[in-house]
Amino acid sequence: MCKVNIYITLKEAVLDPQGKVISQSLKDLEYDGVRDVRTGKYLQVELADRENAEQKIEDMCNRLLANPVIEDYTYTIEEVV
Amino acid sequence: MCKVNIYITLKEAVLDPQGKVISQSLKDLEYDGVRDVRTGKYLQVELADRENAEQKIEDMCNRLLANPVIEDYTYTIEEVV
């Protein structure tokens, strides 16, 4: 079994209005040091099998989990014994 | 300046219907090895100042970014020169 952590973020060039709102809200709460906030998604996927996990995960991201046109993704895999 | 990555997840005991849907969709796409999917949020926050960053971030999470009743959060801080 293995656990995969997937981090999906908007590409640099894509506007992130949700991040802008969070950033402004933090400033309204007097956190003046906040320069920028970008939002993304975090998925924890449990796979039965470590074999070919990289390929499967990339495939899943491209087909369903992320939108490759506007989003980037990275992932880490930890094997669980 | 420092960059903070915040990972917000639902607590173990909290149902995650969105994760269940993703998990089922992946199975429908013939990814049979998928055992479970949990969804979360991923925030990238840029702070002007490294000083007291831990305390500020925890404060932000508790007040605005996460819902401490149903969500857990972790974070990593990287200093940028």
UniProtKB/TrEMBL annotation, chains A, B:
Catalytic activity: N(2)-formyl-N(1)-(5-phospho-beta-D-ribosyl)glycinamide + L-glutamine + ATP + H2O = 2-formamido-N(1)-(5-O-phospho-beta-D-ribosyl)acetamidine + L-glutamate + ADP + phosphate + H(+)
Location(s) in or outside the cell: Cytoplasm
Keyword line: ATP-binding, Cytoplasm, Ligase, Nucleotide-binding, Purine biosynthesis
EC number, as in UniProt: 6.3.5.3
One function term, GO molecular function aspect: phosphoribosylformylglycinamidine synthase activity
Pathway: Purine metabolism; IMP biosynthesis via de novo pathway; 5-amino-1-(5-phospho-D-ribosyl)imidazole from N(2)-formyl-N(1)-(5-phospho-D-ribosyl)glycinamide: step 1/2
Subunit text: Part of the FGAM synthase complex composed of 1 PurL, 1 PurQ and 2 PurS subunits.
Family: Belongs to the PurS family.
NCBIfam families documented for this protein: phosphoribosylformylglycinamidine synthase subunit PurS, PRK05974.1
Protein name as catalogued: Phosphoribosylformylglycinamidine synthase subunit PurS
UniProt source species: Salimicrobium humidisoli
UniProt lineage: Bacteria, Bacillati, Bacillota, Bacilli, Bacillales
Originating gene: purS
